[in-house]
Every structure is written in C-alpha cells, then in structure tokens.
Specification:
about 200 residues, mainly alpha, 9 helices
Amino acid sequence: MSERRANRRFVTSDGIAPVDAHQRPRDYLTPDEMRRLLIAARSGRHGPRDHAMLLLMYRHGLRVSELIALRRSDLDPKAGHLWVHRLKRGLATSHPLAGDELRAIRRLLVGRQDSLSWLFLSERGQPMTRQAINYLMTVIAARAGLDAVHPHMLRHSCGHALAHAGRDLRLIQDYLGHRDPRHTARYTRTAATRFEGHW
C-alpha cells in the first residue's frame, strides 16, 4: 500500500491528515455517556433485552457478532460467569458477571417462553442481526441525546474504561481477547492515569 493511500485512512473530518495514526477522533463513550445510554436502553419498548445487550457489550468488550452469537449455555448463573467466544482468532475466556449484569439477564429471561438457545432474540423470535443492533444503537443513542454512536464504540469504551482505571495492559489484552498487544496499547497510551503525579 502506498504511503498516500495509507494516510488517507486517518484523514480527519476537516480534511487534514494527522501527524500519525494515533491522532484520531474520540471513538469511545465516557462513563457518564454510557450511563445515559443504558438508561435510554431500559426505557424502550424492549427495555430488558436492549439494556442487557448494551450492558454486556460494554462490560465485556463484545463485538456485535460476539453478542448475537451468545447462547444461554454460555451463562453460568450460579458461578456468575459468562463464557466469551472471541472472533478474529481472539482468545476465548470466562468473564465474571457483576451483580447488575446478573439482574439484567434475569429480567431478560423471566418472560421467555421459548426453548431457543440464543440469549438475545428479535421481536419475531429470531436471533438478532447486525443490522438490528446498528438500528437499535442509533435509536437508543438519539433517545440519550448522544451523537453518532455505533456498536463497536462500546468495545472501545470497555478498553478505555479499564485503561483509565489503571488496569495492566496484558490483563486488558486477555480480557478483550487481543492476540496482538499493539491493539490493546491504543487504550493504555491515552489513559489519563499514565500522567497522574506529574504535577
């Protein structure tokens, strides 16, 4: 790939190419923005489902395909664990579920009368699709007063939240299922905790 074509991928909205590829617009939500998004998700027509989906995507850094592939059998409510199947040759791992996540999942499943294996279903009783998730995110973000939120931002939000909490790069790498630590370094490089104590 030529240098010109490579740089075109990182041109900003004003048409100016940044100095390096790490200078890009913020592509994650802050904790307060995530709180607003989750509140908005809960208030919709399918509130329990939408809230649980967004909460799990955020807390576990799920890609859309990983979310819609979740099965009931991936849950271990007694142990409070979720088995996360990573795509893109990522490392599959068992994640602990927090209390609010377990409650959200219980609210989701309490009204289910079917025996289908998928954790999240559409209104027609079919597995959720990428297109449906994209549409829901647009609607929920508008309800929350947020601009241009797309599903992958929740994965980035997870990585940034862990990095800003001072978590170790290797731990974040394993949690998100990254094979290459360079994919994780984007979160730790921009974390405010790196610069604490300088003044």
